[in-house]
Amino acid sequence: MELTMNTLEQSPGGLAGATRSSRPYTPESRRSVGQNLHGVVLAPAKRQWAQEINEELEKSASQPTSEAGRWKDAPPSELVAHILEHFHQRHRQQLPELTRLARMVERVHGEHPACPRGLADTLDSLRHELEDHMQTEEQVLFPLIARGEGTSARTLILVMRMEDHHHAEALKRLDKLTRGFTPPPVACSTWRALYLGLSGLCVDLMEHVYLEDNVLFQIAAPTRKRETSHG
């Protein structure tokens, strides 16, 4: 599964398709905050998670989605509430647990050629970076947007966009370390649970970034399109 900057910037139709395609490979019904990943029902060993998700992304990238239309027409305060509930809370549950599983896999299978050595540290760095990002949104930016004062925070919005692109680079590193989130045939249940959870994290973070950068921020502080001059 090759993750690029364009993947994170594609239409919400594509992201909705990715979410649909990933649900069989992530914890059942996106279990509530605090649920442990050890409770997942594991898919067959030969299932190609990354390949199927990537194919779905490409196939559905241009398809419209009522979900995107709903948020584009909704008050910014409602979209802010949705992002807080469905993404900020979820990331705070996902990353510590995935980091814990990654350290277990690296400790037990460190000598295996396919072991994702360095994955736990990468996830821990992403967790700290994302936590700082989310706190800035929760404490400063989102209250401004909810009050209809987003245009006064254009500089902060630009910083948040830059950080979102940095998160995209982190997803590319995760993809590389895990060889497209594909565990080897000999992988234990913990290793497989780790990669299932990582695929879900990536889809969630892609949708999170899209809704912020291309819907919420655009509504709160529309960017001015430059007119192209000819001649």
TrEMBL record:
Source organism per UniProt: Methylocaldum szegediense
Stretches with biased composition (Polar residues): 1-10
Spans annotated as Disordered: 1-39
Keyword Metal-binding recorded: yes
Presence of keyword Ribosomal protein: no
Keywords from the UniProt entry: Cytoplasm, Iron, Metal-binding
Domain Hemerythrin-like, residue spans: 81-219
Record protein name field: Regulator of cell morphogenesis and NO signaling
Record localization: Cytoplasm
Pfam families: Hemerythrin
